[in-house]
Amino acid sequence: MAFRKEPSYTHGSAQQTAVLLVNLGTPDEPTPAAVRRYLKEFLSDPRVVEIPKAVWAPILHGVILPFRSSKSAAKYASIWESDGSPLKLHTERQATLLRGYIGERGHQVHVAYAMRYGSPSIPQVLQQLQEQRCTRILVLPAYPQYAGSTTASVYDAVFQHYAGQRNVPELRMVKHYHDHEAYIDALRHSVLAHWDMHGRPEKLVMSFHGVPKRTLDLGDPYHCECHKTARLLATQLGLAEDRYLVTFQSRFGKAEWLQPYTAPSVRKLAEQGVKRIDVMCPGFVADCLETLEEVDMEVRQEFLMAGGREFHYIPCLNENPAWIHALTDIAEEHLLGWPTMSNGAAREVRERDLAISRKRAQELGAKQ
């Protein structure tokens, strides 16, 4: 096997640390051709579609790509911004803000972002980080809840890239943060800010991206992690069980997926006489097609057409300062032990920790 050529090395050069924020991906533009390229890469991933290639390939290339690309392109066009894809724009801004926040805490690290499908691709960005002499890389997927079809697929892409490299950097992978205190608090801030402006609904619907039910039966923890996120957030909001509902969206194909499904659930709420619902998507940290078009347009219409009166969509965390602080906390915890601080900043942290330890010891001595 021929390995990729290593960048030139200067003895004595400082080793660098990087944080790589990875989101799902997006077409380059809202056109059938661009969407087709994106869907081909996405739906060819065996983590996403667990059907034997010999069976799946004719369906994908003969039915799905020819007919779904144009329909999906129209949906992307309905939410596309003047500067590009909402998902890519939010992810880029999050990476920029994370770079600033983590720098303010004294860490000297590179922060970059990549997409699992589309561009900038994981291999592209990892190559750039290698050229910047990054020998320690923290991979931080933008998926709070772990699933084989999302987080594990990011792992696959990272490991496949380094299978062709001679000098592999030290790697750390964040698996999940579905119950991280700062993440839950960021969600709470987002909901309360919306309620301060618009009042409270009769029911809060938490819609997570769906996956085939068989993945739960086969041991994927995604379903459980979604419900734990919802329980923790409901507790922080002081919501009783009858005031919120967990649903799953984006079903694809004829197989059974995690239930209850979002669209039929909100339609049923309207038919039962519920007049106002608020819908949020806690599993998405950046607004995208599945939130802006599927939920805020399609699901909204389902509720209103069935007799509901008020439908409020609570945006994703996006660039919410509470979320960027949470993202910084998560990154900082996983960077622990790596030399990411300047000598001066490291000394300040040690002195601070020492002062806290002395204070606690004094308090303990006073109690005794």
UniProtKB/TrEMBL annotation:
It is an enzyme of class 4 (lyase). Pathway: Porphyrin-containing compound metabolism; protoheme biosynthesis; protoheme from protoporphyrin-IX: step 1/1. Its EC number is 4.98.1.1. GO terms for cellular component: cytoplasm. It catalyses: heme b + 2 H(+) = protoporphyrin IX + Fe(2+); Fe-coproporphyrin III + 2 H(+) = coproporphyrin III + Fe(2+). One of its GO terms (biological process) is heme biosynthetic process. One of its GO terms (molecular function) is ferrochelatase activity. The keyword Lyase applies. The keyword Iron applies. Its main location: cytoplasm. Keywords: Cytoplasm, Heme biosynthesis, Iron, Lyase, Metal-binding, Porphyrin biosynthesis. Belongs to the ferrochelatase family. This is Ferrochelatase. It comes from Paucimonas lemoignei (Pseudomonas lemoignei). The gene is hemH.
